[in-house]
Amino acid sequence: MHQLDVDLADRSYPIFIGQDLIAEGELWSSYIRGNQVMIVSNETVAPLYLKQVEAKLSDKQVSTVILPDGEKYKDLDTLNLIFTQLLEQRQNRTTTLIALGGGVVGDMTGFAAACYQRGVDFIQIPTTLLSQVDSSVGGKTGVNHVLGKNMIGAFYQPQCVVIDTSSLNTLPDKELSAGLAEVIKYGLILDLNFLQWLEQNMPALMERDPQLLAEAIRRCCAIKAQVVAEDEKEMGKRALLNLGHTFGHAIEAHVGYGGWLHGEAVAAGTLLAAQLSQRLGWIKQADVDRTRSILVAAGLPVEPPVGMSSTDFLQLMAVDKKVLDGQLRLILLRALGDAVVTSDFPAAELKATLDKATAG
Amino acid sequence: MHQLDVDLADRSYPIFIGQDLIAEGELWSSYIRGNQVMIVSNETVAPLYLKQVEAKLSDKQVSTVILPDGEKYKDLDTLNLIFTQLLEQRQNRTTTLIALGGGVVGDMTGFAAACYQRGVDFIQIPTTLLSQVDSSVGGKTGVNHVLGKNMIGAFYQPQCVVIDTSSLNTLPDKELSAGLAEVIKYGLILDLNFLQWLEQNMPALMERDPQLLAEAIRRCCAIKAQVVAEDEKEMGKRALLNLGHTFGHAIEAHVGYGGWLHGEAVAAGTLLAAQLSQRLGWIKQADVDRTRSILVAAGLPVEPPVGMSSTDFLQLMAVDKKVLDGQLRLILLRALGDAVVTSDFPAAELKATLDKATAG
């Protein structure tokens, strides 16, 4: 078992990474300070792991709320189901919410914890690779609005994060790949050595080698913990973690939530970011090819959706959170392993990149 | 013009109190850091003050959203109207929301600011006495749930609070009284001298003497700023500010939101708290009579709603946020000017107090 710590003064917390950690209740149940617990899960994950979690909480008053599965339910109405359940069960300010599931469950549970009675504790038990390496760490919580993804939320840190790598055994292939998109992202933005390691080990990761997956998760979480400790509220460096995301959010909005997995959209978006970086002369065509290769090796899409035009992209990107004072900011690559947040690119180059990628 | 400061480290902010401060745009517009502003007001207040505020923001990109007036609209659906407007106007993370109105507008605008893109700036311009002395200061924001008042929210501090005492000229008598309920509360819980001052000056306050109202507001805000600085997240002392509120919330829930003004319900609740304190032998009957007298002098109700039973009270109070681990905690009076948060009272005495008060 590995332990990493996210260093945020009085909001610091540990990330536990290892096999069968859900079953090690004494590890994480000590982070529950009251005698009430609300487990939030979804229809897909609950049948697999809910009983295991409940078994470790026999001394608590445990309630559960099972949400429908999918990004399209990540909204205020579904959030309100959690509040209703909390109130019907008379859960008080000392309760602890437990997020048992992927990124959607984690984001919504964290936001519900941030808002219920103006803030109660919560624990993340992420069960997908994507949520284990990214969304469960760092305290970004929230829901979507019909006009934009993740537009309503809070920075709110959990008491601890329990990454049970055994849960990856039940993960569909498509979701494993989606998680690998975020794993590759860490290499591209900040860690060339890790990128090289991923290039060497991608076949084994795709075969779900447990040691290598645990090592990948550990390295991603270590990078994320470091970035979040430096810039919790995303005033600067943390934005680097959004490589490919502005393009990706546009793809998700275009195809409708749930049409593409988040990680898939990020993968296609990451290649667009690399292509624009190359067009600006910052990286070489060989770097773009290398980016494409590793994404393909991870089973990820590298082309925008059929029928999506550059105009579609530009309109949808205009409502991205990273549009500051009307100026679109993107995460681009100065080199592999070295990303920057910038609005320092000609609009014509962005359009040319999108035109070429969407030419079909 | 008075200035008070709420001391919360990097979230400290000033409260400005004085005549015609809305018109002194240079005083508060310097707290707007971006070039986008969203003014949130309601149907009642907007016709009175919106143009004045807009006139001071001619160099900004200003949008407005006008909410329906009333506590019954303080919910997630109405909150979503603010998010929709923010997104339709493409407001970004540097925007500043301005709450122009009473407590409902302030609570919702503050919560919208807390959540929009995980947090943007906001400014409070409270236009009712109640919001000027209480809800605009201290960062409690939120909305109601059908199962409980203020159950969904955040602690989120404004950039500044602009208390323009001239706005009280347009306040209906009923709302002036409702605000005085919270004013009296400060005296009862923490400041016997202030309570005596209020007893002497209540007739003039009811006549809206501008100097005396400004002085009352200043003293209330000074007490609140001090309490909030000591206990921002209500782990202890801040709960004292809820004198009468647990009873009051039960009254509001019983009659339906909007049936009684919040301040009216707090007034009747405050007398119940005093009566229970007397029954416990903590204060004298003369203290209860004095409490009743000043509430009556302020034009406030001191009896529960006709037809509300002690059972109604007890059931509704059981979902109050101050119920910790099933134990009801109340704010009671050890003496006039000295309140405590306690669960140290026999349930039978609470019931007897409620039985007597509701006997009609």
Q: What does it look like?
A:
2 copies of one chain form a homodimer. In chain A, 45% of the residues lie in helices and 20% in strands. Chain A contains 13 helices and 13 strands. In chain A, the strands form 4 sheets. In chain A, strands 1-2-9-6-5-3-4 form a 7-stranded mixed β-sheet, with helices on both faces. A two-stranded antiparallel sheet of chain A has the order 7-8. In chain A, strands 10-11 form a two-stranded antiparallel sheet. In chain A, strand 7 (140-145) and strand 8 (148-155) form a beta hairpin. The relative contact order of chain A is 0.11. The interface between A and B is large, with 40 and 40 residues.
Summed up, what is this model?
The structure is a homodimer of 360-residue chains. Chain A is of the alpha/beta class. The first copy, chain A, has 13 helices and 13 strands.
Number of strands of chain A: 13
Amount of helix of chain A: 40-55%
Strand-and-helix sequence of chain A, N→C? EEHEHEHEHEHEEEHHHHHHHEEEEH
For the largest interface, the chains and their residue counts are: A-B, 40 and 40 residues
Structural class of chain A: alpha/beta
Kindly report the spatial arrangement of strands forming the biggest sheet of chain A: 1-2-9-6-5-3-4
Number of helices of chain A: 13
- The value of Rg of chain A in angstroms is 20 Å
- Rounded mean pLDDT of chain A is 95
Percentage of β-strand residues of chain A: 15-25%
Instruction: Tell me, briefly, the overall form of chain A.
Output: globular
Main pleated sheet of chain A: 7 strands, mixed
Distance between the termini of chain A: 47 Å
Oligomerization: homodimer
Q: Note poorly predicted spans of chain A.
A: none
